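Backbone Fold Data
Goal — fold tokens
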Amino acid sequence: MDNIHYYEMKRNFNQLIRENKARGKSIYLFGHCNASEMLADLFRKEGYLVKAILDNNSSKYRTSYRGIPIVAPYEVLDEESEKVLVCIVARASASMEKQLIQMGYGGEIEKLVVYNSYAEYSFSEDTISKKQKRVERGICLLEQERKRYPGCYRIYCPFPALGDVYYMMTYLPYFLTKKNITDYVVFTVGKACRDVVKLFGTKNADVMSQENMDESIQAVLYTRDADAFIPHQDRPYVVNLAKALHVKKIPLELIYKYGVFGLDAGCIPYKPTKLRKYTVPEKMIYGKSVILSPYAKSVTNIPSNYWEQIIKFYRNRKFSVFTNAVNGEVTLPGTIRLEISLDQMQSAVEQAGIFIGLRSGLCDVINEAECEKIALYPDCYYSDTRWKMEEIYHLDGWKNIVIG
């Protein structure tokens, strides 16, 4: 879960607690994901017990997170609705809320994070009016973007996900060549995603807020803007390839290669070209150091004691052990903190010798690094599919380890 949405969730959670909306209620979370685990931890910290995590993926049943069982959504109907609170922080919050209502649940529903402001479906005058004003704002944004980058083809990356932006950039040159585009700008949400774009030598890369990104994209779709493209695999943008995962296992990279860009098998992904050498700190022993990366947005966490075992293992063998931690992330106990820019990360791990990370977009960014690379995966399923996280995010050339 990215920092922007985490702080939104925490702000709304704190308000929920201040207003005593959870007091005396049976608390359920809907959708097992990294965000819901973080929310469960917030409830635990405040002394509240989460009774269960509801999920539509039957493969997750009979599993749990910190003792909280993962169960079918209909189980919430076993209680009196007025005594229940369901909190949602998953991306599919709108469809989850709709599902609960259609099931006959009449209790409170709190959506603590809004990922997709498109997902408000109503023919009420209020909703229609808000959407009209939103489109008007979006059209104004498009005009501003055209003025900032005159003559440039505009590419919009909807979500702040490093891996998605990385794979998009590896195949974007084929798309640009086919359309005979030489001048273009890539818009991202967040500076980290912009930095990924710059790794590939893109001259124009700009950062937008999530709100402006959503409104710009809606205006692009509404006006059928021929000079813009939204290279993403999920609705409501270009395609809805996420549905294909219910039928077939498709790694994320191939979703972009074949689904988003429609390329042939022979198209080899482009590699980052704008990389800088990392200046090694004194305490990093060349070839006998390990850089740990314990944070990810797209997968759930692994037990903290697993990191403790890794740290102990390498320290006993006289390795220097570091934590790659940025933007307020906590340094793992017994390690040295590093804050490495993305364009220096490949150089850093090559000089260290070993990289061990929870599977995240950072793993994609350093995929070409020549060192020992280990990716860790929680033993759980990807979204509502029957595929495990490791099957969707598997990295060739890495040691891929599933943590049960």
Remarks:
- Residues 9 and 210 are 15 Å apart (CA to CA).
- The longest strand covers residues 372-378.
- The chain has a mean pLDDT of 89.
